[in-house]
Amino acid sequence: MLTGVIRIAVFWYFASKFFSPNKPISSDPSVPNFQISNLFHKGEPLDMWFYLSEQEKFNDFGNEGALIWHETNIPYAVWGPESTRTLSLKYQPSVAVKNNGSLYAHVFFARSGYSPDPNDPEYQPLTAFGRTYPIVTYLPKSKADKKKSLLRNSEDSKEDVTISEAVQEAQDDLKEDGPPEWISYWKPNVTINLVDDFTRYTANAIPPIVAPYMNIESTTGNYYPTVFFNEFWLLRDKLIAMNDTVTEVPLHLEVGPISMTKWQLFLQMDQSFQIHRSYGSMLDGESDELKRVFLEGNPYLLGLTMIVSVMHSLFDFLAFKNDIQFWNKNKSMEGLSAKSVVVNFFCQLIVFLYLLDNDTSWMILASSGVGCCIEFWKIGKAMHIEIDRSGRIPMLRFRDRESYAGNKTKEYDDLAMKYLSYVLFFLAVCFAIYSLMYDRHKSWYSWILSSLTSCVYMFGFVMMCPQLFINYKLKSVAHLPWRQMTYKFLNTIIDDLFAFVIKMPMLHRLSVFRDDVIFLIYLYQRWVYPVDKKRVNEFGFAAEDVDQAASSSDTPAEKEDEKKTN
Q: Membrane-spanning regions, if any (predicted)?
């Protein structure tokens, strides 16, 4: 997802920069085609005034109480310590702001020595410019957590759940059925960037991404410096909900330059996030998680993670391709565990239902759904699937293949699955009871799904053990898809790297190393057991059969040569 967002943003940036259509600012075809330029020069000193007001329109320049910040001699579009200014303060919001009221920041710039006040006798329109920015934003209230303790008669439930809480839960359910409730949030950080843009634009061909931010002077047709309020790094969890209990809020202010390329990249990234959200490929809050990776992560570690992620995707694709190829060409189930294939399908189905119950994005759901279909297709390759129409409701009947039931493979598979199912059933029941007693769930259905999914994640490696047992009994590993398993093992090594890098629960971190143990046992079996030429491989052929066929094909050719020599 991260690489997709970056790819779309970079593509849009270059497309809008070099191949943008001629989109006029005005729909009037009589607009002349002339060049416009910046009214200010690079390095020109500017003075800044920062006002706070509950009114969207501001002209009370004489109000000293509204003036929060004033800076002088800021060099325009020059990088250096003198061009970046900061201020941190505490602000006491009014009663109106606490009760979903609005608050605006009015920022004005002017050439040093000039006033931004239009009522000043010495005011000159070509020397001052400004922009308004809302400090308070409005977002839908987060939905209440519907999870609850399913055991109402437990001690914790007796203490926590009361009649008033039950009434409150019913009221919350009614509110969620109606329109969402919007509340006000305070933005603790305000970053003011002056864009370093001295491009000479054609009046009727300004790039679409730049045009909404242009401040055109009406008499000359030229433009003022672009003031950009940078919210790219302002994450939602940093916002402060406003209510009557809030007495003061922090406010960190910063003013500085920004390059044209960086500014457009921020705009393209925001547009890319919006497109992903509109298509359903990104949930609300996932863009903040991506930004958090850049904010809190080590840049070298981030680069390594991106490279490793590309390798992980490549090995996933190769393992998927070879898995399909193996089962598509497989003609014999001798030495392969058919029950493991069936169990893998049910495990994949449980994970899919769990993701569906937790409102996961459709891209992840589609990937898991395709995995379920593939696992069911593999059942058809491992067993005979028939439709029984003898009853009122057609039923699916599964029947073992002759190559599986006609030898020792089925016997060993049944024996291994018998004992392993006892272990897995015991672990699943214990974990389900623990989760029921100490965890909170939305419903009994969610409890069953979450318990089964947790068992799949934590104890799923147990289902790989029957194949180890069959290999041990048959003293052979020639029937295994080693190419596909090699790619999966490489992915496991990459997962081991992520286990040390990424923060995760201890159980999930331990589960990453479970596949390493299983595959190392596979490698040991491959080293211990010699190559059996009588063993039928995944394509239904044995090495001795191939040698006999080759020798039989060589015999007529030798006789032909003897006849010719004679």
A: 300-320, 341-356, 419-438, 444-465
Which of these, 401, 526, 522, lies nearest to 465 by C-alpha position? 522
In this predicted structure, the answer to whether residue 491 has a pLDDT above a threshold of 70 is: no
Residue 485 has pLDDT above 90, yes or no: no
496 by Cβ neighbours in 10 Å (0-12 / 13-18 / 19+) ranks as middle
Whole-angstrom distance, CA of residue 233 vs CA of residue 237: 11
Of the listed ranges 54-58, 220-224, 270-274, the one predicted with least confidence: 270-274
- Report the length, in residues, of the chain: 566
| pLDDT level of residue 512 (50, 70, 90 thresholds) | low
Owner of token pair 């009871």: 433
d(C-alpha 18, C-alpha 499), whole Å: 43
Nearest CA-CA partner of 352 in 374, 323, 333: 374
Contact 332, 407 (CB under 8 A): no
User: Tens of pLDDT along 153-194?
Assistant: 444 444 444 434 444 444 444 445 557 778 899 999 999 999
Tokens 């100490």 belong to which residue? 438
Question: What pLDDT sits at residue 560?
Answer: 47
| Sheet with 85-91, side-by-side order of all strands | 85-91, 249-259, 189-196, 227-229
Look up the pTM and report it: 0.59
Q: What is the signed CA dihedral for 416, 420, 421, 425, rounded to 10 degrees?
A: 180
What's the rounded Cα separation, in Å, for the pair 231 and 213?
15
Amino acid found at 55: Q
Tokens representing 337? 């565990």
Tell me the percentage of the chain whose pLDDT exceeds 70: 67
Residue in 32, 37, 116 with CA at minimum distance from that of residue 70: 116
Domain spans of the chain? 35-146+179-281, 303-399+411-550
Of 326, 474, 350, 460, the residue nearest 411 (C-alpha): 474
Closest CA to 544 of 554, 555, 531, 557: 531
